[in-house]
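Record passed on here:
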Amino acid sequence: MDPISNNTSINTNNYAVNNNGQGNGQAANNDTNTQSKPQTENTNTQVSGSDTLDYLNAQAASMKPVEKPRVLNISKYVTPEQAQRIIASMLDVFEPKVEEYLSAINSEVGSVLSDDAKLELAAQMFELKNM
């Protein structure tokens, strides 16, 4: 006899997927359904305020201070004719625009900012709009 032909009956009661041979149409009790989530330990501990401030002070002390910008000797990089051309373009383009932005800042914020802060803001506005 052929071994395949002997086993011709099909169990029609195995409707469920992965039922592990229960044959009653219900899904098997898989371990994945009943597994509990692993419990994690609570690592949140209270730290005193002085410990926190000590840590922050130690971090601030390890930071490097900001260096002042170096003064560049422009004559190393441009000729006197090029320097005159750059100065002329600054007088023609940069200064009128900065004055325009400065008057807008003065009309908007008035005396809230210092004069140096207003000039810095006007220069940044020029840079954003024209560079």
